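Design review, sub-item: ligand-bound model
Attendees: FS, YL, KQ
YL presented the inputs for the 3IX complex:
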Amino acid sequence: MSEQTDRSVDTEHEHHGGFPVYTPVKAGPNYGRLVEALRRLQDLAVSTNPPDDVVEQAIEQAEALGDLLEPHQVPEGKSPAGFNPDLPGRGSLLQPPWLIEKFDADAVRERGMFRLFHRGGNNAVHGGTIPLLFDDLFGMIVHASGHPIARTGYLRINYRKITPIGTELVVEGRVDRVEGRKIFCSAELRTPEGTLLCDCEALMVQLLPGQP
Ligand SMILES: CCCCC/C=C\C/C=C\C/C=C\C/C=C\CCCC(=O)SCCNC(=O)CCNC(=O)[C@H](O)C(C)(C)COP(=O)(O)OP(=O)(O)OC[C@H]1O[C@@H](n2cnc3c(N)ncnc32)[C@H](O)[C@@H]1OP(=O)(O)O
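KQ shared the predicted structure:
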């Protein structure tokens, strides 16, 4: 058992439910470029209509890339993907590629753009992508404010204005109050000028020992 998963090295760890100990994962100098190249492919995958001979070449190249990467699969928490706070979206292809700008007990703030592959209808961001941004932010807020890992009980989102793709935006949130295991949080998504696009309230529930 590695030191990272051996809970006997961290007696406080029972407070994190059944989660393993997460620590940031260093990325090699080119890793961020790889993730960005893959995001470009995601943008193109949702915005192209290539002829079939191009589709065939793309399949061959995509399958070759899969074959190249597959031998390097690692367990959760061992890849920089999602675990490197210095990379956009913490290096995760799932997350919008935003950068953490503030990370402390008062608040967590991120800045970035939604991409073409986040498009819903009529060039607006897909309404399901916004809870993803908020949910991940609340996970970080819980961590930054010194609470053990909590899971989202609910997210309540108000979509106030259309959220545009390809435009810089800012999201910021904080813990509002704590009642026992219940951590009530809120956050807002705004333009850099301060126009409110969406706001969200969340209940994060601190896990019991062994809870998944
Ligand atoms: C990423 C690491 C990077 C490297 C390190 C660097 C930086 C760190 C950065 C990030 C932080 C790290 C990690 C983040 C990890 C995780 C965050 C994940 C966030 C999620 O994305 S998670 C996915 C979606 N989430 C779920 O999949 C939850 C499914 N669910 C459950 O697992 C249970 O449901 C649970 C556990 C939530 C509660 O269950 P339970 O049995 O333990 O407790 P119970 O039901 O008794 O609730 C206790 C009290 O909460 C009230 N309550 C509960 N739910 C409510 C609701 N909806 N509305 C109103 N009140 C509610 C009850 O009414 C009661 O209140 P009261 O005590 O007053 O009666």
